[in-house]
């Protein structure tokens, strides 16, 4: 499993990555948000250890950015900081952090907390490995999709597009948001790409494709009372 640590104190950063590596994890350390931001565009870690006090951006802002991103929101985050007041801990947990470790800390405690968070998140994933909506069922573990019990063969992009829509029924997604979430900000293309994938997705879903509704001038949503237009 890949664990990333964002910590500007080089000694602490090295200590954490060394300890995690010795436990069998693939650990990478970053000294600032910019370094981390460049790498997360290329791959997504299984867990992030995040310091609150950083030289370029504070940790809570980074945490909020992660939780607001459809592709990154499910990454578990452990906050690491010298701030140990109750209000600081509550702010971090309310913002979506899985755990909060205060400095100074013991290496054994830190690795134990990391393992505990990973176990909790694994249980959540297993409990929520199926998404069911209006006769459409997605198995996020096997990547299989059925519509009214019939298996539907989807491409990776079609699958990602359907998952984005079906995870939040009745929410309207702009074409730009869909492009960023499914294709990523590195993709250079036109919003027509989204329209074409919506068209083929509707066709493959058969009658259930009518659940995907066009919001003219905006984008798309999935709903129980749509006519697909």
């Amino acid at each position: 499993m890949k664990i990333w640590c964002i910590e500007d104190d080089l000694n602490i950063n090295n200590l954490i990555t060394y300890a995690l590596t010795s436990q069998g994890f693939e650990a990478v350390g970053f000294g600032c948000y910019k370094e981390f931001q460049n790498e997360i565009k290329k791959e997504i870690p299984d867990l992030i250890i995040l310091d609150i006090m950083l030289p370029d951006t504070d940790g809570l802002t980074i945490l909020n950015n992660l939780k607001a991103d459809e592709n990154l929101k499910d990454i578990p985050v452990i906050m690491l900081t010298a701030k140990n007041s109750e209000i600081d801990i509550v702010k971090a947990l309310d913002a979506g952090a899985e755990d909060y470790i205060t400095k100074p800390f013991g290496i054994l405690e830190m690795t134990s907390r990391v393992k505990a968070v990973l176990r909790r998140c694994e249980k959540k994933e297993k409990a929520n490995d199926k998404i069911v909506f209006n006769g459409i069922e997605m198995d996020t573990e096997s990547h299989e999709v059925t519509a009214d019990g019939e298996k539907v063969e989807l491409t990776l992009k079609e699958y990602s597009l359907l998952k984005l829509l079906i995870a939040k029924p009745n929410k309207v997604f702009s074409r730009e948001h869909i492009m960023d979430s499914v294709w990523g900000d590195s993709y250079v293309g036109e919003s027509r790409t989204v329209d074409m994938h919506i068209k083929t997705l509707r066709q493959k879903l058969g009658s259930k494709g009518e659940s995907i509704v066009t919001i003219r001038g905006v984008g798309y949503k999935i709903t129980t009372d749509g006519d697909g237009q």
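Helices lie at 10-22, 33-40, 59-68, 86-94, 107-127, 156-166, 175-183, 192-205. Residues 2-127 form a domain with the Rossmann fold fold (CATH 3.40.50.2300).
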